[in-house]
Write a structure and sequence with these properties.
Layout: E1 14-18, H1 20-23, E2 36-43, E3 46-47, E4 50-51, E5 55-60, E6 63-69, H2 79-93, E7 97-106, E8 116-117, E9 121-124, E10 137-139, H3 147-160, E11 165-166, E12 170-173, H4 182-188, E13 194-196, H5 202-208, E14 212-222, H6 231-240, H7 242-255, E15 269-271, H8 275-284
The structure holds zinc ion.
Zinc ion binds at residues 146, 148-149, 212, 261, 263, 265.
C-alpha cells in the first residue's frame, strides 16, 4: 500500500477509532444522514512515529470528525506505533472526544452474541503499558470511560437497537491477534465481562491528550470454554451489522452536547511529579 502524500491536519472535535464493526463498511458513507458530509478522504499524515494510516474527515451537522480504521495490523508497524500515530494526529487536530467500537468475545456467562456493552471499566492484560506520546502527565484512570460520552452512546444505542444493551461492565484487554485460551477465559471470570484487543493503549492515550473516550462493543463470539461458536456467525455479524454500528456512532455525535464538557476527564490528567527528571532528560537530549 503506497502512501502518495501527506497533508495538513484539519481541526476536528471528534475522533472515531473504528473496529470490526465498521471495518467492513464504508463508514460513514454507508449510513443515511443528510447532515453527513465527507470533507476529505484518504488522508495520511506525517507523525514522529511514522506515516499514519488513512483518515477520513467528515462533518455531522456543525460537528467535525476524523475517523480511522484502527483494527488490523499493518505489516512493518508495531501496534504501539500504530496507536501513537493515531493519537498524535488526534491531538494535533484538537480532538476532544473519541469514540471507539469493536467486536468482542464474552467472558460473563450471561452474555450472548449480538449483545451490546458500553463498558465503564477495563482490565489491561496486554503487555504494552508503556505506550505514550511524551509521558509528561500522571494519568489518573478513574472514570477512564467518560460518563458523559457513555451516556450519549447508551441513548443512541437504545434508539437504534432493540436487543440487549449492557450499560456497564469491564472490558479485559489482551494482546492478540489470536483469541484467548479456555484457561485464560476462566482466569478472567469474575474480573471482566468481555474480552478484546482494542481498548488499550487507546484509553491511556486519550487521557494523555486530554480527550474523553468511550466505546461501544458488540459481542461476536463466546469466550472459549463458555459455549461453542461458529466463524459463520461472526462473519455474518461483521458484514450485517456494520451499518447499524455506524448509525449509532453518528447519532451519538449528534446527541453529545455541543457546549463544554461536564466530565472530569481533562482534570484527571495531572502534571507529573517527575518534572525535574524530564527536564534533565530533555536538557541532555
Ligand atoms: Zn469526558
Amino acid at each position: 500500500m503506497g502512501v502518495e502524500h501527506t497533508v495538513e491536519i484539519p481541526r476536528a472535535e471528534y475522533g472515531i477509532v473504528g473496529g470490526s464493526g465498521t471495518l467492513s463498511s464504508d463508514f460513514p458513507m454507508n449510513v443515511q444522514g443528510e447532515d453527513v458530509k465527507i470533507e476529505a478522504d484518504g488522508l495520511h499524515f506525517e507523525t514522529p512515529y511514522g506515516i499514519s494510516p488513512a483518515f477520513r474527515f467528515f462533518s455531522v451537522g456543525e460537528k467535525t470528525v476524523l475517523t480511522v480504521k484502527m483494527h488490523g495490523w499493518r505489516s512493518g508497524v508495531t501496534r504501539a506505533d500504530a496507536s501513537r500515530q493515531v493519537f498524535w494526529v488526534f491531538r494535533a487536530a484538537g480532538v476532544k472526544r473519541i469514540l471507539s467500537e469493536g467486536g468482542v468475545g464474552t467472558v460473563n456467562r450471561l452474555l450472548d452474541i449480538r449483545d451490546f456493552m458500553i463498558p465503564d471499566d477495563y482490565l489491561d492484560m496486554s503487555m504494552r503499558k508503556d505506550v505514550m506520546l511524551d509521558g509528561r502527565y500522571l494519568l489518573v484512570m478513574r472514570d477512564a470511560l467518560c460518563p458523559e460520552l457513555r451516556k450519549a452512546l447508551i441513548a443512541a444505542t437504545k434508539k437504534r437497537f432493540d436487543g440487549r444493551i449492557f450499560t456497564r461492565g469491564t472490558y479485559a484487554v489482551t494482546d492478540g491477534r489470536h483469541f484467548e485460551s479456555p484457561a485464560e477465559v476462566a482466569m478472567l471470570h469474575g474480573h471482566a465481562d468481555i474480552v478484546g484487543q482494542s481498548m488499550c493503549p487507546e484509553v491511556y492515550l486519550a487521557r494523555e491528550i486530554g480527550a474523553c473516550y468511550a466505546g461501544l462493543y458488540f459481542t461476536v463470539n463466546y469466550g472459549e470454554g463458555i459455549k461453542v461458536w461458529s466463524h459463520e456467525d461472526m462473519s455474518n455479524i461483521f458484514y450485517d451489522d456494520a451499518s447499524m454500528i455506524g448509525e449509532i456512532l453518528l447519532e451519538t455525535i449528534r446527541n453529545v452536547p455541543a457546549e463544554d464538557r461536564h466530565c472530569e476527564c481533562l482534570s484527571l490528567r495531572k502534571e507529573t511529579l517527575l518534572k525535574d527528571v524530564y527536564n534533565k532528560e530533555s536538557a541532555k537530549g
